[in-house]
TrEMBL record:
This is histidine kinase. It comes from Thiothrix litoralis. PROSITE patterns: HIS_KIN. Keywords: Kinase, Membrane, Phosphoprotein, Transferase, Transmembrane, Transmembrane helix. It catalyses: ATP + protein L-histidine = ADP + protein N-phospho-L-histidine.
Length: 487
């Protein structure tokens, strides 16, 4: 399938126009050819009538009327129409259908009939059962091959005579006691074929020039038609970059439904996200007051000595209060996680990774290890900056906690996804079911149920932008976290 609208418009428009030009040219060629054939038919019909006006049939013989003036006029008419042409491009004769013999020919007016060989005349495969009528019938045929085929092959001019087509005017008539005859007036249509060939050559040149002009016009038209779509795309990119909030330019009516739908989606998403954030803020502030009061009471309780049972209970309360605070903080951060429908500008991961490397090396300064970053400046993904910092911070912190000597981050692009591998040389993931670490509340370090928010938050962030997270075995025989992030 063609993915480009401009390509579709170019191919469809160019194809329709060129097919139209071809059809128009074919029709013009056919009409021109038919018109010339009709003219030739009218000419042969007129010649046949003129000749019949001079012919006389008597005692089974055809001849010109016995009048010197008539014979002179007949010779002039034959000469004017080139009916005595030795190349046989024009001819007129009468043939006896039964004996298949030429009983009269226009060439006999210029030379005696006993000097004309029978093989001199062109013969055609005519319908013997043509209706007897004074109105001529017409046929377009090639002559039958002569008896002397060797002479035909050795004489190029004669070969051309027998390979070209002729237009024939045929009149059938019956003479009592003598049988059926056919009066044939023929002319070569080689000149018409040559004109049509020249016309086809000129049409081919015209077609080529038309194709070039149409292609140039289509290209210019495609830029004019696609210009609003490019402008629409630039506005969307401006929204991604945070330079504007809505699409507010005027566009053709075909783009208005998309504009309105997108503006509605952006407005709804903005309001929904704000309401979600406000609700979580209100909830956090509501919970902070009782948590602060409970912590204050625990602090006072620690100032005096109590039995071990009371101390143990206080310890549990303190742990649970700290956990509630972490949960509240996590939910507040989750309010900022961008969902899949949001429009975020693609940004490089390299600066974030280097910033986190400096921080984590200080945090784990009591542990000698190295953080390698193999990601160039072209490695980008479509993610909110805060989400990116939290995602890589959680995963790199886990790798730093469990590694022995090396933590390595590498990135490469696979189609429309940026694939990021975070490797370490630690103990690796559990063999039985590593995917369980992506579930909320599971911690591998303690091998027991606990808060375990880090991996769960990472999974939610990646899923929210349409990505994927996988747990694999590292080349360093440790853990590998593979991220598939949209670019």
């Amino acid at each position: 399938m063609i993915s480009s609208l401009r390509s579709r418009q170019l191919i469809s428009g160019f194809g329709v126009i060129m097919v139209g030009i071809l059809m128009l040219g074919s029709m013009l060629h056919w009409f021109s050819y038919s018109y010339k054939i009709d003219q030739k038919q009218a000419e042969l019909k007129e010649i046949s009538y003129d000749i019949l006006g001079y012919l006389n049939f008597q005692d089974g013989q055809f001849s010109i009327l016995p009048d010197e003036d008539v014979k002179a006029d007949a010779r002039k008419m034959v000469t004017d129409h080139k009916l005595d042409d030795v190349t046989q491009n024009h001819f007129a004769y009468v043939i006896d259908i039964k004996d298949k013999k030429i009983v009269w020919s226009a060439s006999t007016l210029s030379k005696p009939s006993n000097e004309v060989e029978d093989d001199y005349y062109l013969r055609f495969n005519l319908d013997k059962n043509l209706k007897i009528s004074f109105e001529p019938s017409f046929a377009q045929l090639k002559p039958l091959p002569p008896k002397d085929l060797q002479k035909l092959e050795s004489d190029p001019l004669l070969k051309q005579t027998y390979t070209q087509e002729y237009l024939l005017s045929i009149q059938s008539f019956f003479q009592a006691d003598y049988g059926n005859f056919q009066f044939i007036v023929g002319a070569s249509i080689a000149d018409i074929e040559k004109e049509m060939q020249d016309m086809r050559g000129k049409f081919a040149i015209l077609l080529f020039l038309s194709a070039v002009l149409v292609l140039i016009a289509q290209l210019a038209l495609s830029f004019w038609v696609v210009a609003p779509i490019k402008e629409f795309e630039n506005e969307v990119k401006s929204i991604e970059a945070g330079e504007r909030e809505l699409i507010d330019n005027h566009y053709p009516e075909e783009l208005l439904p998309i504009k309105n739908a997108l503006n509605g989606l952006l407005s709804y998403e903005k309001g929904q996200k704000q309401r979600y954030k406000d609700t979580l803020d209100d909830l956090a502030h509501s919970i902070k007051t009782p948590l602060t009061a409970m912590q204050h009471q625990l602090d006072q309780l620690h100032q005096t000595k109590h039995p071990p049972q009371i101390e143990a209970v206080a310890k549990v309360f303190e742990t649970q209060i700290e956990r509630m605070r972490e949960i509240v903080g996590h939910q507040l951060r989750r309010a900022m996680v961008t969902n899949q429908g949001a429009m975020i500008l693609s940004q490089p991961i390299r600066p974030v990774l280097f910033r986190l490397r400096e921080t984590l090396l200080k945090v784990h300064r009591d542990k000698p290890f190295e953080i390698r970053i193999n990601a160039d400046e072209y490695a980008k993904c479509r993610m909110d900056a805060e989400d990116m910092m939290e995602l890589f911070g959680n995963l790199l912190n886990n790798a730093c906690r469990f590694c022995q000597n090396i933590v390595e981050v590498s990135a490469h692009q696979d189609n429309n996804m940026l694939v990021i591998d975070i490797d370490d040389d630690g103990l690796g993931f559990p063999v039985d079911n590593p995917a369980k670490l992506l579930q909320r509340g599971v911690r591998e370090d303690s091998k027991s149920d606990g808060q375990g928010i880090g991996m769960a938050v990472s999974t939610e962030i990646v899923s929210a932008i349409g990505g994927k997270i996988e747990l694999q075995v590292s080349p360093y025989v440790g853990a590998r976290v593979r991220l598939h992030l949209p670019v």
